[in-house]
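Re: the 211-residue chain
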Amino acid sequence: MRRLLAVLLSCVVVSMAAVSAQAAEGDAKLEPGTARATFAGGCFWCMEAPFRKLDGVVAVTSGYTGGHVPNPTYRQVSSGQTGHAEAIEVIYKPAKISYDKLLDVFWHNIDPTTPERQFCDSGNQYRTEIFVHDATQKKLAEASRAALQKSGVLGNAQIATAISDAKPFYAAEEYHQYYYRKQELRYRLYREQCGRDQRLQQLYGKKAGGE
């Protein structure tokens, strides 16, 4: 009986894991004429704003990806034990805005020279990473990374930003979505105290991102 219960329990666990993965990947259904891009650039509050204002971007969702824990919570991801990074999922219309343009916005809103850290936030959950959804995105991402490295903008520093195949993306809790609007004062204070804009200006000058 105990063996039977153990088998049944393991089947339930596997089934729940499969459902979780499907729930995350269920968002993969896209409207005709749209595509998906996924970027990790440290605090997702700060990455959401620059992409939302772009013409041709349909939606931006803050969330978690790249790890091994299904349906993680913010507290779990913040512990650094899930393998997930704070990230954004961008749904866009390629006819209006190119993936190359999204990459350009991504680079100018991060410090690509710091591994496992962005500005005042440290830990693997704040790493920078590009999660590609097909071979074309991978090729463009690798080319853009090489071009930035070759440009000399970063001096002798090496780019630490990884390029990886996309994994299930889990939307963050609702209070994180549009945080820069919902909690504008706190958001502005966080950006200032974290030194994000100062560092971006130091790296990119007039081309620095920000919101």
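The chain has one domain: 30-207.
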